[in-house]
Amino acid sequence: MVPPDQWFDLARLSVEVAATGAFALAGVLEGTRKRMDPVGICAVGFLAAFGGGTLRDLLLDRRPFFWVQHVEMLWGVLALCLLAMVVMRARHLALTERAILWPDAIGLGLFTASGVQLALDAGLPDLVVVLMGVVTGVFGGVLRDIVCNEIPAVFRDQRPYAVCAFAGGWACLWLDRAGWPEWAVMLITMTLTAGIRMLAVRQGWRLPGARL
Fold this sequence. Notes:
Number of strands: 0
Structural class: mainly alpha
């Protein structure tokens, strides 16, 4: 019989894989929308998929990096990038900004939950735990937008993004402190973070902008 700790480690790895795939797809869509060549599209997909988790591992001093420890993720992201390009080319799909928002929101929720859980395991202070979730969920999208010659969406479009990860991180922390099962904490964090982001996009919620 598999011990509960191993089940949770497997569940957390599954979350990382799903988040990596979601962010890679968002990167491929953005690279395609910018009319990049296949190398550029794959590069953007890799940056979006691995950027946030790599920065998290650097800050937490975790070695090897998650994508080095599980090299299958590299092959999986490469295959996903190539497959997505073939499908989009064959079906002549019209890419809009909204098409990129959905996989991006899902990846945000998944990576936020993963980052918070790893920081909790490291015994870090509460605020640092939450910020690790934000960094993990947001930084891949920041790198994607920079490479695509855009001001990162998290800084410019005024729709809640990092705020969603911040709220989900605190919810994760409080549920963990309340003694909820780890699998339930991760599931609620993923759902809450992605749900707030999707609702914000659907309802057109916006944060107040700076005025000169």
